[in-house]
Amino acid sequence: MNESFDRAPGAGRSRHYAAEPGLLLEEDGDNNTTLFNQREPLRQPRTTPPFPENSMSPADYMVSGDFKRPSKPQQSANANSTSASRGFNEVDSLVKSSKLSASAPEFVPAGINSYEDPSFYDEDESYYEPTLAETVADFLDHLSSSPGSFESDVEQITCMLNSWVTTEELLNELVELIYTQSTAIPNFSYTGARLCNYLSHHLIVSPPSGNFRQLLMKRCQTDFERRDAAVRGDPETQKKFHSYVLFLGELYLNLEVKSSKGPPNRANILLIALKDLMNSLFSKPVDGNLICAVKLLKLTGSVLDDAWKESGKPHMEDLIRRIETILLDAKCSRDVRQMLLKLVELRSSDWGRVRAASAASNATPDNDPNYFMNEPTFYTEDGTPFTAADPDYAEKYQEILDRQEYFQDIDGENENGNEIYEDSEDEMEPEIEEAFERFCLESEKKRQQ
Predict the structure, then answer these.
(1) 81-136 pLDDT, tens per residue?
(2) Angle between helices 287-310 and 334-348 (to 10 degrees)
């Protein structure tokens, strides 16, 4: 062991520092080690000091790659204090000259505009206003999908159109849009006719060329003049023409023309047009034209018949005779021939209407054809149907009762009305019967308690 080892605490220990970068160790003449504190200068603060004397910004210094430090710390400190005092003075002056108020209703930063600058939005995100055609198409599609909402929506639609349609050009466009929709979609012809009637009475605009109803009649006249060519055209042309014919029938039933005397009347010009249209359809008796004529007569036959009878014109008789001629000569399909026969029968029964029906108390089978309407229908043994209106009703009905009584006596009941169980499969087995009797006794005991 080293004899110079000193056991006293701290003995033999000298305050030597390990060599570190930046430290220089030298020996003097007495071989004593001397430490010179030539340390690295203090690092710069993280925040950038102001540069009052130079217009170059800190970012410019960083970009240039040479972040210049102040040569003298004292001068840098003086600069910092000077800039700080100057900053406080500027803030104080801004506060004194500020127009902000704590009682203001709202605070709007200086960089925000209080109005919307149109140039702020892109072209794709700018406000888009729909055209009249798009708006009309939207509410026509709505009425087509929800016809039950017509009464509740038509007033609002008319108010919108009154504020929009103010010129003759827009009125013609509106007429064309509604006419096209009504003739292009068969199921919309009824709703379209109702809409035309409402607009003809509530649309305000009335240019010199005519109001809504007059312009609509002019548009219908255009297709009416092409009727002879349309019935002989290709299937697509015929299909469009048939939609037009059915729309004109709905228009005749729904369009009302105001009269100076009495209630409004139907448009007589449409009455004449419908007769000519049916003559055109019968002039080319192919299946499509004949089916369209049958649909039109089922729709408007009773009204047309009454109007022609009042005016003393036999137009309906002429049409029926023409149908009978087609049944004899035309080469139409069996189904179309059957439709024409049913139409003739319908007209012979006055279009299924019952004229002067008697009161219920005075109704008899002789004076009321609906007397037996609610009576049930029975069938004979061979499957022949009969009702109370059948002359042999009593006899046939008694035969049914006798037959039912006969089978009941055999299958289900004896003379006293008691049910007879002859099928052994319906009898209960002894174990089940015993359990059932025990259940009945227990139930009776509980009921008595």
Answers:
(1) 555 555 556 656 765 676 666 676 666 666 555 545 555 445 555 567 888 899 99
(2) 10
Token readout for 409 is 């006596």
pTM: 0.54
